[in-house]
Design brief:
342 residues, alpha+beta, Ribosomal Protein S5, domain 2, Ribosomal Protein S8, Chain: A, domain 1, OB fold (Dihydrolipoamide Acetyltransferase, E2P), 5-stranded mixed barrel, 4-stranded antiparallel beta sheet, 14 strands, 29% strand
């Protein structure tokens, strides 16, 4: 952003195009109109508050107005909400907008009518154009143009409550169409996944001379960058193929694996010993399932229960403070048999 009073960056912006033919005018278009700047800014403010701070993307919405006989800026807000949810942007809540109008009697201030969703004639001949945008929780942006000296509190109160009813009605129609943002981005969309890993694992992910990270990028066809922020490794994975991105995430998590006590893991039996079985719960992390943790009943021989190569679920019950060895249990995930009464 390079303006007269501000220079910086914007990660969310909205282009509102209002060509002359949208209102039946036949003239050339040489520059951006006052209407496009003002209405576009209103729609951008209404939607921007719902973009989560952790959203890694730069988002651009383009609203092309093909015909207008009402509040096209409020249509832009509603269509923008649908577009964001359809694109998979995790907006906090859907936003709708409605334009309120006013017809009043100059001689008798108590004689007035508040109009909802005004048409072009009602905007031109009326006394107010009050655009209100918001979610089910409240207002995110508003803008008012009036042609009278002022508004009474009574009129303002009625306009806001009437607008709330209209906004909620429109939100119901939006939710009927798409209830929440898409879980998966569309196939052609560039995707970014951000992982946070322990600082101590950054070297393992990069590898000697960058060997590991380069091989990972080549095999998954992704771009991977890693940096240290506040003693935490922040890994960014960029690509378009979701399956290959998921594969990259899986491999990075296995390298930066940090076991948690109480967590359940799907593992593979790597070796059998007389006292238990060693189970791999990640590519470079093993733990011991002691013979007493194989089953609730007494086990005399480990191979009666498990064989090498078996896939099993285990729970991490302890980590040895001195050696760092993992103690796993299989039996805690099995139904506990009731005690038999002799």
């Amino acid at each position: 952003m390079d303006g007269v009073t501000h220079q910086g960056y914007e990660s969310f912006y909205l282009h509102y195009n209002f060509p002359p033919f949208s209102t039946g005018e036949a003239r050339m278009k040489f520059n951006v109109s006052r209407r496009e700047i003002g209405h576009g800014n209103l729609a951008q403010r209404a939607l921007k508050k719902m973009i989560p701070a952790e959203n890694p993307y730069t988002v651009r919405i383009v609203s092309d107005i093909l015909e207008s006989n009402g509040s096209s800026s409020m249509a832009t807000v509603c269509a923008g909400t649908l577009a964001l949810m359809d694109a998979g942007v995790k907006i906090q809540k859907p936003v709708s907008g409605i334009a309120m109008g006013l017809i009043s009697d100059e001689k008798d201030p108590s004689n007035y009518a508040v109009l909802s969703d005004i048409l072009g004639d009602e905007d031109h001949l009326g006394d107010m154009d009050f655009k209100i945008c918001g979610t089910t929780d409240g207002i995110t942006a508003c803008q008012m143009d009036i042609k009278v000296q002022g508004l009474s509190y009574e009129i303002l109160d009625k306009a806001l409550n009437q607008a709330k009813e209209g906004r909620l009605h429109i939100l119901e129609k939006i939710i009927d169409t798409i209830t929440e943002p898409r879980v998966q981005l569309k196939p052609q969309t560039p995707k970014i996944v951000v992982l946070k890993v322990p600082k101590s694992t950054i070297g393992g992910i990069i590898g000697p001379g960058g060997k590991i990270i380069q091989e990972l990028q080549a095999s998954t066809e992704t771009n991977i960058s890693i940096e240290e922020v506040d003693n935490i490794g922040v890994v960014e994975i960029l690509g378009t193929d979701q399956e290959k991105i998921d594969l990259a995430v899986e491999q990075i998590k296995s390298i930066a694996f940090m076991p948690e006590i109480g967590a359940i893991y799907k593992g593979k039996v790597k070796s059998i010993m007389p006292y238990g079985a060693f189970v791999g719960i990640s590519s470079n992390t093993d733990g011991l399932v002691h013979i007493s943790e194989l089953a609730w009943e007494r086990v005399e021989n480990v191979e009666d229960v498990l064989k090498e190569g078996d896939a099993i679920e285990v729970k991490l019950i302890a980590i040895d403070e001195r050696s760092g060895k993992l103690k796993l249990s299989r039996k805690v995930l099995l139904p506990k048999p009731e005690k038999q009464i002799k």
